[in-house]
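Before a colleague's protein record goes any further, I have to sign it off. My question to you is simply how this chain folds and whether the tokens agree. I do not need a full report, just your reasoning and any doubts. This is what I was given:
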Amino acid sequence: EGNITETGELRNLLTALNAIVEVAGTIDFENIGLDVITALSDASIDAIFDSSILVATLSNVIAEQMPTGDNPLVIPDSVYDADGYLLKTEMVALVHAFKLVIETAGTDPENFDFAAVLALDDAQVDVLLDSQILAATVGSLIADITGEDLIVPSTALDDTTFEVDGLPITVVSATEIKAVFASLRVLGISDFQNMGFDAGILANLEG
């Protein structure tokens, strides 16, 4: 009755809490951050997703602490289940991607630097793009960079319709993202926002 937790959920909750304690040492629900979430192992995430309470709690944490400002993350509707909580597959992919960013770019997920992803190799980009959130974010960022320096043809766009709050968004395909990253590395370009194409970049193609 009321708010009494079911026996099965209580057991799952305790198991999930224990998985978090193993990573964080203690649990402070008012201060659970992305640093704790990114430290979770796949086994820990399995335990968490057996508890509907923890799934709801961590989904809320992730939604509230996603980077905002100049480069906010794009969160497609497709990453949520029918109850509005993050899908297990997306949480696993997101954790793997954020770990990669921390290890390779030396930055924390809450201060995600999109310029840093340009330094990733093809295998690392695959890990990044396994997350629908990051694939949509980077794909949207590239699609929005228009003007004289960068032209995004319709053939480079993702055939899948990504929606955010029920509204479709334009996203460059994962295949094209990988190709763009590889090309920019060859050209020696390391900044999405300040790309410039002139005769000087030809020097990077020599040799």
Q: What stands out?
A: Residues 7-24 form the longest helix (18 residues). Residues 33 and 83 are 22 Å apart (CA to CA). The first strand starts at residue 162 and ends at 164. The mean pLDDT is 75.
